[in-house]
Amino acid sequence: MTGAVPIEDHGQLIARVRARFAHVEECPLTGPRIFFENAGGALTLKSAVETSAKFAAIPDNQGRMNAASKKLQEIIDTARADAALFFNAEGGRVFVGESGTELLFRLIRDACLGAPEGGIVLGSSVEHPASRSAAQRWADVAGKPYVQVIHDDAEGRVTAEAYAAKVTPETRVATILHTSPVTGIGNDIAAIAAAIRATAPEAFIIVDGIQHACHGGIDLRAAGVDGYVISPYKVFSRHGYGVAWASDRLTALDHDALKGGPEGNWELGTRDTGAYATLSDVVAHFDWLGGEVSDATEPRARIEAAGRAIAAQEAMLCEAMLHGTGNLAGLAEMPGVTVIGGVENAHREGLVTFVAEGRPAAEIVEALEEEGVRVHIRKADHYSGNILTPLGFEAAVRVSMCHYNTRAEVAAFLAAMSKIL
């Protein structure tokens, strides 16, 4: 099988994909439901569930003089290599922390404090507060003005041209959001990083990849950045840890570490081997899927093929949700519905956020829950106000999909929406 076509168009592949995940069709607490809340935390691979249980029972830890400890360290080393392959990262360090947000704060802090004196910290108004708040806080501590690139409200994204207009030769640190968890609209991190480096080649560039990771298509060699962070619970693993990649030049800066400890070590204290092992499960899933949708034999090529297939599946789902499927009208055809980021947006990644005139978002979310469709509300608060407030919306409904969702589930959502509206 070749070509970037939707996973559902590969025979029975979609059924085999869904069989790899836990609780695809029903919530363990409330019963049957369609899961369109993936941006809040994707479904978990069954292999990751099994791996978590297995390692939770092992009493040994890395760094001891016994065979079990040595094996645990080998598993951690393998997971780091797997993550580097998934990121397509060259050099640098892969490590885990408390969460994606915590790791963004750490990378941005170390960059702000370790960069040469003076200069500015550059970010954008489209960013999640995980990176925006961190950059503002540590820019202030480091005595560097924080400069904000304003995103395009209509498209819900920020461009390389917008960054180029704000970057100066004195830019010391820059942050980029790969994909918005509010709109699902992606940003071209490679183009933005190139625009920054054209004027400030030595700037430290750190990317929030938390929302993007489940869609695949991460290529840090092409991006040319210094840091990239994901939250594994949003990419088919579990809660309780985040994963970061830091370049060699970022790793060389001073950061929290035990005196006399290994040089370049980012981690504090004993690591959870199970967290690393479940990361390998995630990468193995992309590898497996790439082998199902392509003739690729090399792991990285299969991972890239998986990303293309995922993009095709999710684009098909978004198209159906916006323009309808069968005899069901899409959101774009429903009276009074406004789609955040615009209906025709080529940068959308498996997510549609909308408002309906005269119907509060909370009411729609509750009504969909009664119809067996789980979605989420985004309010104009500290998480989403940067996107919704400029548009004049107090709240919106977020419908987020992943590659295991189906046309039939979209049809059920549209039927429910027709009834609700």
Automatic annotation (TrEMBL):
<feature type="domain" description="Aminotransferase class V">
    <location>
        <begin position="34"/>
        <end position="413"/>
    </location>
</feature>
<dbReference type="Pfam" id="PF00266">
    <property type="entry name" value="Aminotran_5"/>
</dbReference>
<dbReference type="InterPro" id="IPR000192">
    <property type="entry name" value="Aminotrans_V_dom"/>
</dbReference>
<dbReference type="GO" id="GO:0016829">
    <property type="term" value="F:lyase activity"/>
</dbReference>
<dbReference type="InterPro" id="IPR015422">
    <property type="entry name" value="PyrdxlP-dep_Trfase_small"/>
</dbReference>
<keyword id="KW-0663">Pyridoxal phosphate</keyword>
<dbReference type="InterPro" id="IPR015421">
    <property type="entry name" value="PyrdxlP-dep_Trfase_major"/>
</dbReference>
<keyword id="KW-0456">Lyase</keyword>
<protein>
    <submittedName>
        <fullName>Selenocysteine lyase/Cysteine desulfurase</fullName>
    </submittedName>
</protein>
<dbReference type="InterPro" id="IPR015424">
    <property type="entry name" value="PyrdxlP-dep_Trfase"/>
</dbReference>
